UniProtKB/TrEMBL annotation:
InterPro entries: DUF4767
Taxonomy, superkingdom: Bacteria
PROSITE patterns the UniProt entry points to: PROKAR_LIPOPROTEIN (PS51257)
Domain DUF4767: 69-202
UniProt entry keywords in alphabetical sequence: Signal
Signal peptide (UniProt feature, chain positions): 1-28
Keyword Repeat: no
Biased composition (Polar residues): 50-62
UniProt-recorded name of the protein: DUF4767 domain-containing protein
Stretches for region Disordered: 34-66
Low complexity: bias regions: 34-49
Pfam families reported for this sequence: DUF4767
Amino acid sequence: MTSFRRIRSKWRLVVPITLLSLLLIACGQTKSTTKSTTVSSSKSSNSSTIAKRQQAATSKSKITPHKVSWNKSKEAQLAKFMHQWQAEMGQSYQGTYDQQIPDHLGVKFPEAITDGSLNQMAFWLGESVHFSWGLTQGNSTNIDVLAAASGGADKQVWPRTYLFCLHHHRPVVLTTTTTNGGQVYFYDTQNSALQAGFSKIVTGESANPRSDAELNQDVATSLTKKPQQFPTAYQGTWYWYDDTDAKIQQYTLKSTSGLALNYYETAQPQWLNVKGAQQTAGAGSDFYLRYRYYDGQQIPVMIKASGASQWFDFNAYQTPELAQKFKNYRFGDEPADRESDN
């Protein structure tokens, strides 16, 4: 798997490419990474409407300020929840909610936050962040850390640390497994039980995680229509970060003219396969849409793969800002890419 690399230069250019270009690129690739050529395309009002509808759906998890609070009672609820969760996971954690001092390879909590030392080396998705201990809500650029826990499985060599946070009044659970000194990289945990459990404790409201099945519920039926249609959640313009050229690229899934759509009914995940209607060679391009956590919300993230072995190409997002934020980050559920699979 390729390493996670950040390019800190400011970006201004979004390069559109057509879906047909993606298909041609996929067919022509061997062991090289994806590199797209620039082909002009326009955004349709329909694509924009779909994207807005999907973004509005994810905004339902936003928490208003008056619903946010933290006290000893909620700290005790978190302790009870974590005891149950770690037992189910077969893991063990030291938590500040138990008046313990979690230690991540010398970074101790809450001391590393209260003395400011963590802020000198903390990064969230590659960007520096500022942590505050306790419920402050004073500066929107700060992330309030309400609790911390470090540990893992019995035979796990390196620890995993969780920070239970508030950011823009939203409950967020960040995690790190950083083992190298000098910098600590945090990411949103993709454990839905942790995210939902902490959110319920903070807000007092049940948070039912959205399922990937919601995004893929009409995949099969959309392909039987005449003409075929892209599944509803797939439609629209998607943005991805081209690491080779350090640019944000885009493609639009709308018209199926000149295309043939299929899906792998028995595969996991059930990839949506797209080929040229007259294509007789090559595997085409594969797409799969799933939810991933970011900043306390679930956002749709599309995997793009290609080749006979469905090699991973990139993750795509509904806005160029998200594509820029995540760049070439991998969530862990992506298939192997061409380099690591050879």
